[in-house]
Amino acid sequence: MTKVSIQTLGSFGDVMPFVSVAHYLKELGADVSILSPSDYSGAIEAHGIRAEAVEDFTLAAWDKEAEQRGTLKNPLNFFRDWDEMVAPYVDRTVEASLKAAQGADIILANSICAPAQMVAEYCDIPFILNAHQPAISATREYPCAMLWKPGIPSFLNKAGYAMVWGAQRAMEKALSGHRRQLGLNSPHNLGASRDAPRSDMVRLTTVSPFLIPEKPTDWHAFDVLKPYPSLVPESGAALPADLEAFLQAGAPPVFIGHGSMDVEAHASDLQVILEAVSERGRRAILSEGLAEKLDGPVGDQHFIVGHAPHDLIFPRCAAILHHGGAGTLDTALRAGVPQIIMPRHLDQFWHADALWKGGVAAKPLRRGQVSREAIEAALRFALSEEAKAFAVKTAEPLLALNGAKEVADFTISRIRSGRQSAR
């Protein structure tokens, strides 16, 4: 049986697209496992996928310390905190990656799980480096989403990828001792840091076609573009009874949630947003994590929701206010619902700007500085008939795509091409 090892150390938003891919890999007859932070082992196993985890590492604890330090505020801070926030986990991550890859025919991973490609090289199996935003394949046509901020001119697009390459090279150095132990003497190539990776490796960018409709003309043959691996609808899934009753009791509400970024939200922003929604006579669905940030009750006209499937909630909402994560925006795009984005860091700023300029989202809100005027303008746009009509039109071609299945098919094809080249 074909075995696929999927490896990521990212957030819930990084893990769930891989769960969707794993679903279709299993349909193709593959044995699949996902290596992730232990925070998400339960969610992975709930979808019938075998979970692997890095020993004594939880993303929740790491994120909390990173927020206190400002590690992810900018690339300079990331390198500043390297010895405290990255180096201590290298040994455990390498060990977990090696264990997860035992007997695998291919590894599919994002760059956050940096040892994965070294392990693929050691196991002599193909490797797919994946990103859900333009970040690993340099191009002049789109900025590096992980670093872009408003005001950066487009002529610097390709130069922005150099910072990602720098981080990858730093990880190469951190892994040099492990390479020697594994008998790998040639320089480690994490992919984006060089123009020609190993012949059995590709760089796969999975992004909604609304954001990047076609492969950039200056990409190489080993740079591949596929649609974002959207959530796979769960068979027989339904909303909690109390949420279903709330939705049926009135007009479509405004959804307000920041996913795994809830912990970083500002109570002052939430208060202004809820007041503006309420004064428009609108109801809101507020994520449990955000509700915990407020000093008092949210009001009887609103609903606090814990974990519930966005693909079932979003189509029944009037607008989606979120942080700009790749998975959330993809689900909102496919739901045909206008968006309001309040980005926090990394790719969220590029997402927010691209959706605003594309006409499916309001002008991005500034985290920690949400004014009454800004949220009222955002709500005017998002709740307008024109915005709704355009969002519905935008969703139609996206619903015809199945990015997760395309990635699964592509992964299997890479195994077959690797076997043929070995003959």
Secondary structure layout plus pairing:
Elements: E1 3-7, H1 12-27, E2 31-36, H2 41-46, E3 50-53, H3 59-69, H4 75-80, H5 82-85, H6 90-100, E4 106-110, H7 115-123, E5 127-131, H8 161-174, H9 176-181, E6 201-206, E7 223-226, H10 241-248, E8 254-256, H11 267-279, E9 284-287, H12 288-291, E10 303-305, H13 310-313, E11 319-322, H14 326-335, E12 339-341, H15 348-358, H16 372-382, H17 385-399, H18 403-422
Parallel strand pairs: 1-2, 1-4, 2-3, 4-5, 5-6, 6-7, 8-9, 8-11, 9-10, 11-12
Sum up the structure in keywords.
423 residues, alpha/beta, Rossmann fold, 2 domains, five-stranded parallel sheet
The proportion of residues in beta strands is: 5-15%
Residue stretches low in confidence (pLDDT < 50, at least 5 long) are 419-423
Spatial order of the strands forming the largest sheet: 3-2-1-4-5-6-7
Radius of gyration: 21 Å
What's the number of extended β-strand segments?
A: 12
Descriptive report:
By secondary structure, the protein is an alpha/beta fold. It has two domains: 249 residues, Glycogen Phosphorylase B (Rossmann fold, 3-Layer(aba) Sandwich); 159 residues, Glycogen Phosphorylase B (Rossmann fold, 3-Layer(aba) Sandwich). Helix 1 packs across helix 18 and helix 11 crosses helix 16. It is built from 18 helices and twelve strands. Helix 12 links the parallel strand 9 and strand 10. A seven-stranded parallel β-sheet has the order 3-2-1-4-5-6-7, sandwiched between helices. The protein is globular and about 65 Å long. The C terminus is likely disordered.
